[in-house]
Structure formats: structure tokens, C-alpha cells
Design goal:
Length: about 220
């Protein structure tokens, strides 16, 4: 099989060195944006490659509704064993679509459930910060219109005044930077191609560093 035909499928192997270089040499804000864009582009290219293999490999199979012209002889010559590659590509594409669809659905469900829990539970809301009575310590940024910072009473009680302000500033930085979008993009990219998992991890780390940098600048 022509190696260049499948190059987009293995090109994401460069994700790890790219992530390390970005973390070492770029500001967290720039690293987050660059890695999210690179991950999305690599995932798109690998998915389109699977689509091409599927079309080329199955256009000649009996009963396929695609016209024969969709599988040009010159293209088939570049992809020996095209029928096997096409069948494998169908399965891979199905996995990618299901995984990405489930990721988006899970993301939406979590946001909806968090919003409903916030609306139903007794809470004290002040300046975009919701304090929820809960014995478990946690804090997170809940995107929305408007976005809110959610802090449990257990978390608030284990911090002093200065630490609470730092925590709230950190979570607000996540909201202001719309970090959930970069995280979702990186997660979808990793679902589309497992070789992009290092980028997902790197984006998660860089968003935390970005929020810390923003918090420090506000001091």
C-alpha cells in the first residue's frame, strides 16, 4: 500500500513532541490555542483519510450505490488491497463517529445536569459565585449565560480568605478564556485518533497553567 495514502493516519504520532515543545517554549495561552488547533486539524485529516479509503476501497464492491467513477483506476493503483482497506476504514469511521458523538453528548449532559443541580439546590450566589452546601470539597467553572463559579461549602471551609479568592480567580479565568471549548476540541481529536491523546493531556495542563497565569496577573 502506498505509504503516503495512509500518512494522515500516522501523522498524529508527532503529537507528543509537538506538545512537549509547546509546553516548554510557549505561554500557556498560546500553547493551548496552538495545540487545540493542531489536534483538530490532524484529527480532521485522519478522518478524511479514512473516508477516502472507504470510498476507494468499496466503490467497486457489488451492490455499492457509489458510481464506479468514484474509484479512479489511478487512485486504486496507489492503494493495493483497496477492498480490505475500505472495509477496515468503514469500521474505523463508525468507531470515530460513535466515540465523538458520545463525547459531545456526554459534555452536553454534564453541563445540563450541573445547571439543574445548581438551580435545584439551595445556594448562595454572589458576584457569579455559587456556594453549594455539600460535605465533599470541590470547585469548578460552569460555562453558560452567565457562566458561574461553583464552590462547595466543604471546599470553602478548608481554605482561608486569601486561598478562596485565589481559587475563585482561577475558576473565573477558566470561564473568561472559554477553556471548556479547547478541552472539548482536544478530547474530540483524541477520540478521532488515539495518537492525539498526548495533545489532550497537554491542553488540559496548559489550560490550568493559563488560569494560574491570569490569576497572577490580576493580583
Amino acid at each position: 500500500m502506498g505509504v503516503f495514502v495512509c500518512l494522515p493516519l500516522v501523522l498524529p504520532l508527532t503529537a507528543l513532541p509537538i506538545a512537549r515543545l509547546a509546553e516548554q517554549h510557549l505561554h500557556p495561552r498560546s500553547a493551548t490555542r496552538l495545540l487545540a488547533v493542531v489536534g483538530a486539524l490532524l484529527a480532521l485529516c485522519s478522518t478524511l483519510c479514512l473516508g477516502l479509503l472507504m470510498v476507494v476501497g468499496t466503490a467497486q464492491l457489488p451492490g455499492n450505490p457509489l458510481p464506479d467513477s468514484w474509484s479512479d483506476p489511478e487512485v486504486r493503483d496507489a492503494v493495493p488491497y483497496e477492498e480490505k482497506a475500505g472495509i477496515v476504514a468503514i469500521g474505523a469511521l463508525a468507531v470515530v463517529l460513535v466515540a465523538c458523538g458520545w463525547t459531545v453528548l456526554r459534555h452536553v449532559r454534564l453541563r445540563v445536569r450541573a445547571g439543574r443541580a445548581l438551580a435545584a439546590a439551595p445556594s448562595v450566589v454572589s458576584d457569579g459565585v455559587a456556594l453549594l452546601p455539600d460535605p465533599e470539597p470541590y470547585a469548578y467553572a460552569l460555562p453558560g449565560s452567565p457562566g458561574r463559579v461553583v464552590v462547595s461549602t466543604a471546599m470553602a471551609e478548608c481554605l482561608d480568605a486569601h486561598e478562596r479568592l485565589a481559587l475563585i480567580a482561577h475558576e473565573r479565568a477558566h470561564l473568561a478564556g472559554r477553556h471548556h471549548r479547547y478541552l472539548l476540541a482536544a478530547q474530540l481529536a483524541a477520540r478521532a485518533n488515539p495518537f492525539l491523546l498526548p495533545l489532550r493531556t497537554a491542553v488540559s495542563v496548559s489550560t490550568e497553567r493559563w488560569a494560574d497565569e491570569e490569576r497572577s496577573e490580576e493580583r
